[in-house]
From TrEMBL:
SMART domains: NADH_4Fe-4S. Signal peptide: none annotated. Pfam families: Complex1_51K, NADH_4Fe-4S. Keywords: 4Fe-4S, Iron, Iron-sulfur, Metal-binding. Residues 304-349 form the NADH-ubiquinone oxidoreductase 51kDa subunit iron-sulphur binding domain. This is [Fe] hydrogenase NAD-binding subunit.
């Protein structure tokens, strides 16, 4: 694991300290501490974690649930896998604190089907934490009971979306729902449910043990903390890096040994493709999207082939429920294939750009709302290469 500047997730950690501190507070005080930290979800959407917990806490009901979204499926992303394999106790401690904060006694880890080889590690960690009285009945003699089950996904990318994930856990086909109601109102088994990403939960023990102000000393005012990035492509040192939010893309490229990069896909396939003129911009919730994946493309890469690869993925992974996503991705891929053959007019390209706007505003979930991003950003930045080839 590599990092520059300061680090959190790969710094000092003592199991149970954050949980003990949380149990010494009232649930609403735990929620308030997380709100003060400014922590935002690390799964892509960036919703404030403390606010999500507050919504669930305020919901009435004798049953509530917390779910760890470990369905890491974004192309080029492998950071959560590393956390699950090497630091599962942090994930479980964060999930336990989340359960205490919202009033849940049962938590789940929804593990990507392709990560089934991590299952024994997680099961072993759960049993060990029970022996240490950090999980199970009467945790640390506080009177708080909390247990965790693991559910396996079946390989569908769309189940990374929280409602599709919940539908899958409910025993139905993994498809997004219309909102509202939101999961914090009516989620798993129609009960108030919080869904948090693996990396998000790993920050929770640190925030409780060291305080919100300490956490806010990392990153920027609007994007607090650090972020894990899975960095791959035409570079000398691929891997998982922990960097402070606000780091510029130029700093990242220098760190990983990128020589003559032509473009960088930031935020995964559903993120945006950044050209050289924007390499000096920061990666943050106010700048370039801080998704978990950064893919670097060298000078010799054909950007039309890159775009085709992304769109083939989205056509394959669209659940097919809503027309803008199902038909839109297919039409975009068809347009790219026409461009390859030299059969696509400039006028038709303009129609495809309009289609992208329709998909972003009318698709049911994040898949269809963000899948046009690669088409828009690659066309904008590499128009001459693609249209006049």
């Amino acid at each position: 694991m590599k990092q520059i500047k300061k680090k959190i997730l790969f710094g000092e950690y003592v199991s149970g300290v954050g949980l003990k501190k949380a149990l010494s507070k009232k649930p609403d005080e735990v929620v308030e501490e997380v709100k003060k930290s400014g922590l935002r979800g690390r799964g892509g959407a960036g919703f404030p974690t403390g606010l999500k917990w507050e919504f669930a806490l305020k919901e009435k009901g004798d049953e509530k649930y917390v779910i760890c979204n470990a369905d890491e499926g974004e192309p080029g992303t492998f950071k959560d896998r590393k956390l699950l394999m090497e630091q599962p106790e942090k994930v479980i401690e964060g999930l336990t604190i989340a359960g205490y904060a919202i009033g849940a006694k049962q938590g789940y880890i929804y593990l990507r089907g392709e990560y089934i080889y991590i299952l024994p590690t997680l099961e072993k960690t759960i049993e060990q934490l029970k022996k240490e009285n950090l999980l199970g009945k009467n945790i640390l003699d506080s009177g708080f009971d909390f247990d965790i089950e693991i559910r396996l996904g079946a390989g569908a990318y769309v189940c990374g979306e929280e409602f599709a994930l919940i539908e899958s856990m409910n025993g139905y086909r993994g498809e997004p729902r219309n909102k509202p109601p939101f999961p914090t109102q009516k989620g798993f088994r129609d009960k108030p449910t919080v869904v948090n990403n693996v990396e998000t939960l790993c920050f929770i023990p640190y925030i409780l043990s060291k305080g919100a102000e300490w956490f806010k000393s990392f990153g920027t005012e609007g994007s607090t903390g650090t972020k894990l990035f899975s960095i791959s492509g035409d570079i000398e040192h691929p891997g998982v890096y922990e960097l402070e939010l606000g780091v510029t893309l130029n700093e990242v490229l220098e760190l990983v040994g990128a020589r003559n990069p032509k473009a960088v896909q930031v935020g995964g396939a559903s993120g945006i493709c950044v050209a050289k003129k924007d390499f000096d911009k920061p990666i943050s919730f106010q700048g370039l999207p801080p998704g978990g994946s950064i893919i670097v493309f060298g000078e010799n890469r054909d950007m039309l082939k890159v775009l085709k690869n992304f769109l083939e993925f989205f056509v394959e992974e669209s659940c097919g429920q809503c027309t803008p996503c199902r038909e839109g991705n297919y039409r975009l891929l068809e347009g790219v294939e026409m461009l390859e053959k030299g059969e696509c007019s400039v006028r038709y390209v303009r129609e495809l750009l309009t289609l992208c706007d329709v998909m972003k505003t009318s698709s049911k979930c994040g898949l269809g709302q963000t899948s046009p991003n690669c088409f828009l950003s690659i066309l904008e930045n590499f128009k001459d290469e693609i249209i006049y080839r």
